[in-house]
Write a structure and sequence with these properties.
The complex is a heterodimer of chains A (about 230) and B (about 300). Chain A is built from 8 helices and 10 strands. Chain A is an alpha/beta fold. Chain A has one domain: Rossmann fold (3-Layer(aba) Sandwich). Chain A has a 6-stranded mixed beta sheet with strand order 6-7-8-3-9-10, sandwiched between helices. In chain A, strands 2-1-4-5 form a 4-stranded antiparallel beta sheet, covered by helices on one side. With about 300 residues, chain B is mainly α. Among the domains of chain B are: about 35 residues, no CATH class; about 40 residues, no CATH class. Classes of the chains: A alpha/beta (about 230), B mainly alpha (about 300).
Chain lengths: ~230, ~300
């Protein structure tokens, strides 16, 4: 089976800092993979490369059959990306964000799904309030909604549980489960092992920009995770 | 198989469409659209003038000596380069693109509240609060603090009682049939010569601003004309009460794209009774899970209990 996400020897360098130092990763459709690791392990940078936001310094990255370095626009069309920070316009409302996302992705029948997603994430009553007044958790929830609106084939969620209340966590887990059932490939980056294992079938632990372990979620016990991080 | 030219054309068309959507999205966030429109017009006019005017500058037309005109011609490229550098520096200093960064913690940005809440605006006259966004600007105008007016913190009921009391006192007549006391004159600093703008400026004070008359307000004008103040979802754009209507947060397709009220009874989230979100996640919901009407804005506790 051809993997939807195929990363081979990925290196990303920012000046003298090497954020990602040789990661290999393959993820197929209908699977959810968790990226775990400490701060600065290279999780968010890897997600940005997969989303076509940051170009790779070296290595080959294929997302849904498109090379990230050669055709980033096609990659952006294929993925739904929830960034770890930012991505929202403070003066716009969630409904305006949904409208813009739908228009840029040339979606026609999106209102029903947008409304449903807002209600699932408890954002229905603030759909017409500007995002600038939102709490961190509300912004995170909205980012997940925007990433999942167009039912992408590749769903990239970077720290989706950060500062989110239990209802939001539950809704995010539902989104991941729906995407898996649809046959999408999900990559989820988080610090929270328990939630990652609840959402994903396999986990990859990064440390210092490199992958140190790739194992099924059930085998990643708390002790093993701690040992891999230290 | 499409040729490379066709692909490029499609890409250009798509890029133009994307740019149009982004510009319209950005334009929605402009806080003072009239000021922005005037500033843009002035900028374009000055740019055209600066581009065209040098062509008309000849010794015959200006009456200047030929060497002066030549000097101006020679200085123009340097001036253009200087303005270009100035513009680049200003845009960098102004923080272009900072909107995509998260808001600073601890800073509560101005809400665009009630004010552009299409969902609330479209709810209809049965809900008293729904009228608030409809007459938002008018309400904002009236809510300005003026001398002699009860502060809002005192509560609306207290203010209403005080107004009734004053009205009753004004209606009382004395033995001669005249008002028991003259109606209290409102303190209007903009009408008072001593407190007029000139005097204030001389005294080093900030002159009092005269509020815009109610009738001059855009919303009031439209209301006076009998124009519809809120449009239902799907209504044509003309039904919205302004081009920046609250019923059309980002009108791309020429129709009011407001968020329709959720019917809680049919929502999948409402199949689990006893949960808070099942009943009262939206202020517009008036029915509870079991179908019972819980009032205009829904009694959350009652909904939870149900």
């Amino acid at each position: 089976m051809t993997p939807v996400i195929d990363i081979r020897d990925l290196h990303v360098r920012f000046g003298e800092v090497e954020a990602v130092a040789g990661i290999n990763l393959a993820a197929g459709s209908g699977r959810a993979t968790a990226l775990l690791g400490r701060n600065g392990a290279g999780k968010s940078t890897t997600m940005k490369v997969l989303a076509g936001v940051v170009p790779p310094t070296s290595g080959t990255v294929l997302v849904a059959g498109h090379d990230v370095a050669k055709d980033p626009l096609a990659v952006k069309r294929a993925v739904g990306y929830c960034p770890d920070v930012g991505g929202l316009v403070p003066r716009a409302t969630p409904w305006e964000h949904l409208q813009l996302t739908a228009r840029l992705r040339r979606m026609t029948e999106w209102e029903e799904r947008g409304r449903d997603l807002l209600e699932r994430f408890e954002l229905g009553d603030v759909a017409h309030r500007v995002v600038g007044g939102f709490s961190h958790g509300m912004s995170r929830r909205l980012s997940v909604v925007l990433a999942a609106l167009h039912e992408p084939g590749v769903l990239l969620l970077d720290e989706p549980f950060d500062g989110v209340d239990p209802i939001g966590v539950e809704a995010t887990l539902d989104i991941v489960a729906d995407a898996r059932a649809r046959g999408a490939c999900i990559l989820l980056s988080t610090h929270l092992r328990d939630l990652a294992l609840e959402a994903c079938g396999s986990a990859i632990v990064l440390r210092g920009g490199s992958s140190v372990a790739e194992l099924p979620a059930a085998e990643l016990t708390s002790e093993a995770y701690r040992a891999l991080l230290d | 198989m499409p040729s490379s030219t066709e692909t490029r054309t499609e890409t250009r068309a798509g890029a133009a469409t994307d740019l149009r959507h982004l510009l319209r999205f950005r334009a929605r966030g402009v806080r003072r659209p009239r000021v922005a429109a005037v500033a843009t017009t002035v900028l374009v006019a000055v740019t055209i003038l600066m581009a065209v005017a040098p062509a008309w500058m000849t010794p015959a037309s200006t009456g200047l000596p030929a060497d002066r005109v030549k000097l101006l011609d020679d200085l123009l490229p340097a001036a253009l380069a200087g303005f270009l550098l100035l513009g680049i520096g200003a845009s960098m200093g102004g923080g272009g693109g900072r909107e995509l960064l998260p808001p600073r913690p601890g800073r509560h940005p101005p809400d665009r509240p009630g004010h552009r809440a299409p969902g609330r605006a479209r709810a209809g006259p049965a809900q008293p609060r729904s009228a608030a966004p409809v007459v938002g600007p008018v309400r904002g105008f009236r809510a300005r603090r003026r001398p002699g007016r009860a502060p809002r913190r005192a509560g609306r009921r207290a203010a209403l009682a005080a107004r009734r009391h004053r009205a009753r006192a004004d209606r009382r007549l004395d033995r001669r049939g005249r008002p028991a006391h003259a109606p209290r004159r409102r303190h209007r600093p903009w009408c008072d010569r001593r407190a007029g703008p000139r005097v204030a400026r001389r005294a080093g004070r900030r002159p009092a601003r005269r509020p815009r008359p109610l009738a001059a307000h855009r919303g009031a004008r439209r209301l006076a004309r009998g124009a519809p103040v809120a449009a239902r979802r799907g209504a044509p754009r003309s039904a919205c009460w302004s081009s920046r209507s609250r019923s059309a947060p980002y009108p791309l397709d020429g129709r009011c794209g407001s968020l329709p009220a959720r019917s809680s009874g049919s929502s999948p989230a409402c199949t689990r009774p006893g949960r808070r979100r099942s009943c009262a996640s939206s202020a517009r919901i008036s029915r509870c899970c079991d179908g019972s009407i819980e009032g205009l804005y829904g009694d959350r506790s009652a909904c939870v209990a149900a």
